[in-house]
Amino acid sequence: MCDTLALIYKGSKEVKRNKLTMLKRQYEMFAIKDYESIQFMIACLQVILNSVRSLGAIVSQYEINDKILIILVA
């Protein structure tokens, strides 16, 4: 029963891998739009990072800081 519920709500390993691939792509392609504030941009990035972490992937603070600096400089 517990395994069935976990499979329904979390998905199979293949589904997790596909979600993670999609989220990593979103993270890589993430950029601030001209009309967005920095606070809104950070909030959107945080949503992606929380989703990535919920799937068990690790994103270091260094990578996050680097991504934010690259976005702001571009």
In short:
By secondary structure, the protein is an all-alpha fold. The protein is 76% helix and 0% strand.
Would you mind describing this structure in some detail?
- The protein has one domain (2-73).
- Helix content is 76%, strand content 0%.
- The chain contains 4 helices and no strands.
- The termini are far apart.
- The mean pLDDT is 86.
- What is the number of helices? 4
Low-confidence stretches: none
Classify the secondary structure makeup into a structural class: mainly alpha
Write down the secondary-structure element order: HHHH
- Calculate the mean pLDDT score and round it: 86
The total tally of domains equals 1
Tell me what portion of residues adopts beta-strand conformation.
under 5%
The rounded distance between the terminal residues' Cα atoms is 50 Å
Biggest pleated-sheet summary: none
Total number of strands: 0
Q: What helical percentage do the residues reach?
A: over 70%
Shape: elongated
Rg (C-alpha, Å): 15 Å
Descriptive keywords:
single chain, 74 residues, mainly alpha, 4 helices, 76% helix, elongated
Topology:
Layout: H1 2-10, H2 13-29, H3 38-54, H4 61-73
